[in-house]
Structure formats: C-alpha cells, structure tokens
Amino acid sequence: MATLGRETVSTTFVARPQPTTSRPRVLAFVDETGDRGVGPTSSRFFAMAGVSIAEEAYPQLQRAVIYLRQQLRVPANKALHWQEHVKRFSRRQFVTTTLTAVPGIVLNYVIFEKAAIPATAGLRSSQATFYNYTAGLLMERLLLTAEHWPGGARDLKVDLGHVRGFNHDETLNYFALKRSRAQGPANWGLLEGVPRFLGMMSNGGMQAADQFAGMLSAALKPDEFGGFEPQHLLHARPLIRRNWQGRSDGYGFKVMAQPNTMSSFPWWPSGGV
Question: Following CA atoms 151, 249, 222, 112 in sequence, which dihedral angle do they give, to the nearest 10 degrees?
C-alpha cells in the first residue's frame, strides 16, 4: 500500500478492499504515458489516462486483468506493463478486446503536445507544474464522470500511478487548492478521501490504466518506419466519455495541441475520437 507521497509497493497481486461506505462509489485509476521533459530527446506528447468503473463492477475488471496476466505469462512478482509484456500487435489486440469487454468502463484522456506550450509558461519550466496541471485536468474529468454516472451522482475514489522520485505531496496540495477554490465545473465534494499514488502491482485497476495509456501511446507515437498503430485506441473509442451530442473532444478526450495536430494523423477519424 502507500502513504501520502511515498510508496510502499505490495509484492503480491491483491484485490481492493471492500467498500466501507453506503453511498455508491466510482473507482478511478490513472496512469501516464510519455515524459514530462521538453528537451530534444523528450516525447512529443505527455498524457494521462483515467479508467473509471462502478465499485460493484470492479471485480470483473480485476478478473480480466488476472486473466490477461495468466495468458501473457506475466511473472507473479511483476505488474502487467504495456511496454514490457504487450509489445506485439497480437498481444495488444488480445489485451484491448479483453479489457474493452468489461462492462461499465469509462475512459478519460488528457493530452499535451509539448510544442504547443508557450516558451514562458510554467508548464515548460517546471516538470512538477506540468504533471500537476495535467493531473488536475484529469481529476476534473473524473469528478464529472462520477457526478453524471448513470443512475445518479456517486462518490469518487482515485488511485494514480506512483512516479519514482516525484514529490506527490505537491500534487495533493494542488488538488486541495483546487478543491478549496471550488472553481470550474467539477464538484470536488464528490472526491472521497485523499487520492493515492500506488505502484502498478497494487491492484488490477492500475494495471488496466497502464494498458489504456499504452493504447493511446501506440496511436500517437510513430514506429521506426513512421507508421502508427491506432487500432487499439479506436477499438476502445466507445468507452471514452462524451457530451450529450456524442462528442468526446474537451470531455473524455481533452487535447492541448497546435492547430491541426490531431487531424494530421493518417488514422484520425473525420468526426474526431
């Protein structure tokens, strides 16, 4: 388990604790893809993926991850990682079809193209500011997901991937500041307790978030020949949160990028993701 800002990673694959409150909850799991650097060797994008699911449906997600671990022969002492265990197309296709078959998952993505960040912006000069701002945008979307959950608003419990060497207390302070100011459309009163920063082995939801982040990465990062692999993200497309008109841009697929960046991808759908 983990304390605030400091991780103690479990060595076994364990289930989440049983609910302790009577009010229904949404469980959310967050992982990132890309790096926070802005140098010439840094990734073009930095993004976060948020996987939300009703607490009562979580065991199905847990079973799906356990099944994937078994079929992909992931060692018992390792977490299921996209970059390590899901390198080939066939394995990626298998992971995608297995996870998207779990009912009730809602996806939220927040994506930054670093070239679009102004040279004088704090996001460019401070990796902590960059991470916290991105995480804050995703948290708002997770809260909106919980508020508009089918059947009525729910409380929200959030687990985020632990980042080695990063002071997550600063992130928690940033969340607390946003909560105290009560600005924007998100209802921070739905957030239950304090978000946790956990290692991937802590639960199946964290490993699922790693996979959905990997699907996005495969669509955005070119291979050695300049090609892209969007099939997995597009297969998961129906799970992305949308507005009443069915559009995901600005909702479950929030992109801060230069004009025409996304539409320049050869796989980009005419109506957006």
Answer: -100
Q: What angle do CA 61, 132, 35 make, to 5 degrees?
A: 75
Q: How far is the C-alpha of 25 from the C-alpha of 55, rounded, in Å?
A: 6
Give the predicted TM-score (pTM) of the model.
0.90
Residues in Cβ contact with 171 at an 8 Å cutoff, skipping those fewer than 6 apart = 5, 131, 132, 135, 160, 197
CA distance 57 to 59: 6
Write the pLDDT tens digit of every residue in 37-91.
887 788 999 999 999 999 999 999 999 999 999 999 999 999 999 999 999 999 9
| Beta-carbon contacts of residue 33 (< 8 Å; ≥ 6 apart) | 45, 46, 47, 48, 49, 213, 214, 216, 217
- Bridge partners of 272, per DSSP, are none
Q: What letter does residue 230 receive in the DSSP assignment?
A: -
Selection from 90, 104, 98 nearest residue 65 by Cα: 98
Q: And the tokens for 228? A: 């892209």
For 92, other C-beta atoms within 10 Å of its C-beta total 20
Token code pair at residue 204: 């199946």
* Residue 239 near residue 216 (C-beta atoms within 8 A): no
